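hi! just following up on the protien thing from before. the input was this:
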Amino acid sequence: MSTGAQLLVECLMEQEVEMGFGVPGESYLAVLDSLHDVTNRFKFIGCRNEGGGSFMAEAYGKLTGKPGVLFVTRGPGATNASIGIHTAMQDSTPMVVFVGQIETGMRSREAFQELDYKAVFGTMAKWVVEIDDADRVPELVSRAFSTALSGRPGPVVVALPEDMLVQETDARPRGLIKAVQANASQSAAEEVMQALSQTERPVVVAGGGGWSRDGAASLTKFAEANQLPVIVTFRNQDIINNHSPSYIGEAGFALAPEIRSFLDESDLILALNVRFGETLTHGYTLFNPSNFDKKLVHIHASEQEIGKIFTPDLAVVSDPNSALAALAAHEPLAQTPWAERTKSGRSDWIKGLDVPPQPGDVDMGIIMTYLQKRLPKDTIVTNGAGNFAGWGGRYLHYGDGKRLLGPQAGAMGAGIPAAVAAKLAKPHRFVLCFAGDGDFQMTGSELGSALQYGAAPVILVLNNGTYGTIRMHQEREYPGRVSGTDIVNPDFAMFARAYGMHGETVRHTEEFEAAFERACASKSGGLVELIIDSEGISPRTTISQLRARNS
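and the predicted 3d structure came back as:
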């Protein structure tokens, strides 16, 4: 006999879960006690906030392809974690969240920290379940992992009532779950190739979650063999080798005019694993559901995404990796009248990499040129949300194993936890995080987790003294009426040093290279704060100066 909590941990071991994230809570003390018995097989990473923990689990799932596992307590712990759950859903990342719950006999009395998790997370996760009988732990945990991995990957929330966790059971764990995916047939690949052969201006748009390294390699091989142009969706740059002659850019926010024109002029869209959301469609002005007049071939892991907004001329339900393996294995087309168009698109993308001199004393264009040459080929790049993230997304080239872990959901604060998780999951790889000053302060306390567990990323904090993206929109929509977007910041370098990292501040471009090298040499990780000029309160404004001004 074992308790529900012990059986739950046994089930995790069967699923080969080696690492999980979370903040301890009284509602799942029995699970924490059971984890004590498997410390040689499982590493529990204690986080400083459930939001940071959920970002770590999401990044782990995105990086490894295995579900990121998160433990949080009931009520406030669950709601704190919601930001990473929402990110995992929009980014199509496998994730399993175990949430403490009140005793079953107290339901519907608004007990201490009581929440109806199905109501709270019903539209935020692929599946939400509450295990009220310890005998069903193996069944429902197996289903949770299968749901998180299969079809379009995503988050699953599993609620654990306190009394169930101490209930005795003689149930036994189930075996290792393998993802259930539809595989593209050779006949489906033949139909796709036939559709391409009947067009003159096709474009491949690739994105979504669930890509493997082999799948990304097959995408590059297929596109090059057929001289096809490839555009990726928001923060999906790492699913194709950016050095490929087929890669022509990203369809994200601040859509480049040449990318918009390219898509406008195309007569066939080969949509590989993408959702037609607001970002890809540029607010449904680029692809308008009411007058969409292009041929559409849509390949996706979930049948629920096909025909959801646009009706495809050809639909293939398949995970991206098997679909691209089938397409890459197909004999290339003999005629590719779009070859020159692909070259032109590639040329436009390369021209767009030329950064004009930047205002102020720190020129990010020069810094990005240095980083592109300096970073190891298998670097893992992370970022949160803000205009600053465009530097790593646009001006670093991905390929040869380089990865980008950025929140397609646009969640601020994701970069620091993602960097910590990436360094814990892949300790021998170099991890670089881009953070904004406002973005960093959302989850900067997770440097405590980095300190505690020996993670050592390198972090660049772009400090411009403002919520830059919102300020940009504010100046456009309400010029001259600044409200709520200025920030007075701490000394970020000193903050990093308080957590045992190397920390220093760069105020001039020529200082960066040496500062970055010192950060890279630090065994405990490093943070380099870059002072970027901005209107409004200067990042150089100190707290004492602000107090003096306000008095």
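The radius of gyration is 24 Å.
The chain has three domains: 2-169, 186-351, 364-550.
cheers
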